[in-house]
Write a structure and sequence with these properties.
Elements lengths: L7 E5 L11 E7 L2 E8 L7 H5 L4 H9 L8 H14 L5 H29 L3 H22 L8 E2 L2 E2 L8 H23 L2 H7 L7 H6 L4 H5 L7 H4 L5 H4 L17 H25 L11 H10 L2 E9 L2 E9 L8 E5 L1 H5 L3 H5 L7 H7 L4 H4 L3 E4 L2 E4 L2 H20 L9
Antiparallel strand pairs: 1-2, 2-3, 4-5, 6-7, 7-8, 9-10
């Protein structure tokens, strides 16, 4: 990013009091106006994929759950689907519904957490404390159903670990009523408050064409008017039976502008949508088994014989999560495990969103895509005691080389024929 006359540079990160995770943003400003931004990642790579390819698939499931603490069912949902596809494992219908219920409860908790963070970035800490206070209710019901407030350990290959007992249904219904009673208040407080509107209307705009060209996903894309949602576009689990419509600002009677205000609209309306989905899933959930493999040794024996590749996906609160696995007979660990988190897709949306904005708007624009850097960052290396930061050109070269290696390996495995 070349510096023009009458401009100066403001570096933020990778370590900064305003940053929850390490990333470097370098802004070129003219007065108070941002005229350019450079995004540098590579400070938080944890090597989870590498570790996963050296553990058996049950152990990989625990790793997947810890890719992100806020989306701690999203990655296991995508991973289990990928492995089930590769290993030819059927999932009982009841388990599909239970996965949906836990996923939508997590969406509520994630969106409320984000709303509180957004309020804090706007300097509206009273609203932060309100949203985080009411978020406790959904964490309580998640603990009731799974045993944990975070990292629920619910999905297992072939089903789920825990059933939802009949005596727990009233508690879930009570949670639904609680949030339905609060939703109008939250919508009114966020969307009709003049100070919130002044700080978010026309701020961090992502035009529909930009969102499409940059492959934005989740609320970031839907706020720009792109009606894309994996639950709608490629139904999985029980979403096909329940039906999901991608929410955009038009559902609030607004023409999408793609600004921060629209991103608030989409997330709060999705809280209401999740309540409807949970209630329907609870009512329509069929009886039956919750797993195809009641005993873990039988599951491990089946997985060890599995031979093939699979792709799993999930509409996480931030957008679509994709997991790819390749399994080889006689090998306990996955031969290949690749994860694509939504922040990986949304990060480049920052560039047009920052362009032309004020310095004071940097925190709320950055927060508007709900970034999770540790989910997606995989570019800092330590090898033989020396460190190296990998930039775009080198990453592209290495990625292409790895794709060729995987393709060559796949062509040697009977019946696969490489990666498409």
């Amino acid at each position: 990013m070349a510096e023009a006359e009458n401009t100066f540079r403001i570096p933020i990160g990778p370590i900064h009091p305003a940053l929850k995770e390490p990333i470097r943003l370098s802004f070129q400003v003219e007065g108070e106006r941002i005229v350019g931004v450079e995004i540098r990642t590579g400070f938080a790579h944890r090597g989870i994929e590498y570790m996963g390819m050296r553990r058996n698939l049950i152990q990989v499931l625990y790793l997947a759950e810890r890719i992100c603490g806020i989306c701690s069912i999203s990655h296991p949902i995508a991973l289990t689907q990928a492995v089930e596809q590769a290993a030819g494992i059927e999932v009982p219908p009841r388990a599909q519904y239970i996965r949906v219920i836990i996923s939508e409860l997590e969406r509520i908790h994630s969106h409320l957490l984000w709303a509180g963070v957004a309020a804090h970035e706007l300097g509206f800490d009273t609203l932060l404390h309100l949203t985080w206070k009411v978020r406790e209710k959904v964490l309580d019901i998640l603990e009731e159903l799974t045993g944990n407030r975070i990292n629920y350990a619910i999905p297992i290959y072939g089903g789920v670990r825990r059933d939802i007992a009949p005596d727990q249904h009233p508690k879930v219904q009570d949670t639904i009523r609680y949030y339905r009673g609060l939703l109008d208040e939250l919508l009114d407080t966020f969307l009709r408050d003049p100070s919130v509107e002044a700080r978010t209307r026309g701020v961090g705009v992502l035009e529909p064409e930009e969102a499409d060209a940059l492959c934005a996903v989740g609320p970031t894309a839907r706020a720009s008017g792109l009606a894309k949602d994996v639950r709608q576009d490629r139904p999985y689990l029980a979403y096909g039976e329940l039906g999901v419509k991608a929410i955009t600002p038009r559902d609030w009677g607004l023409e999408p502008r793609g600004d921060v205000y629209d991103k608030i609209v989409v997330r709060l309306l999705e809280v209401g949508q999740s309540l409807d989905l949970i209630e329907r899933a609870l009512l329509e959930m069929p009886d039956g088994e919750i797993t195809s493999f009641p005993k873990i040794p039988a599951l491990l024996a089946h997985l060890k014989k599995a031979h093939g590749e699979g792709l799993g996906w999930h509409e996480a609160p931030r957008g679509e999560v994709i997991h790819y696995v390749r399994l080889e007979a006689g090998v306990e660990e996955p031969v290949v495990w690749k994860v694509k988190a939504p922040t990986y897709s949304n990060l480049m949306s920052w560039e047009p969103m920052f362009e032309g904005q004020e310095i004071a708007d940097i925190p709320i624009i950055a927060a508007s895509i709900d970034p999770c850097i540790c989910c997606m960052d995989r570019v800092h290396m330590v090898r033989d005691g020396s460190e190296a930061t990998m930039h775009k050109e080198e990453l592209l070269r290495l990625s292409r080389e790895k794709t060729r290696r995987i393709t060559d390996h796949g062509s040697r495995i009977t019946g696969l024929g490489g990666v498409r």
